[in-house]
Amino acid sequence: MFNEDLLTQFRKLYFKGQHVDPAPPLYIISKEEEYEVEKVRNHRKQGCGIQLLVHWKRYGNEHDQWISETELPHAKKAIGNYWSRISSQNL
Fold first, then answer.
1. How is domain 13-89 classified at the CATH fold level?
2. How far apart are CA 1 and CA 9, in angstroms?
3. pLDDT (tens digit, 9 = 90+) per residue, 36-71?
4. 69 and 50 in contact (C-beta within 8 Å)?
């Protein structure tokens, strides 16, 4: 049993940031669904490895994720571009 008085009516979303568009379709690579990395935005040390802040192609910033570098075998170009950009900033 549940008390109906505790329920609240659904309210429409009023602000642009409250609405999240549905995810675009995934790419199929080697019969597996895979997201495409647009660029790497940052990095951090996590345990014994490095995690990269990944921005996914065709997704908004709210979908960025910290992913272990070893879990991104198909993103070598984006990872290489990030490390090149970081090393040129440190010069």
1. OB fold (Dihydrolipoamide Acetyltransferase, E2P) (2.40.50)
2. 19
3. 899 999 999 988 899 999 999 888 888 899 999 888
4. yes
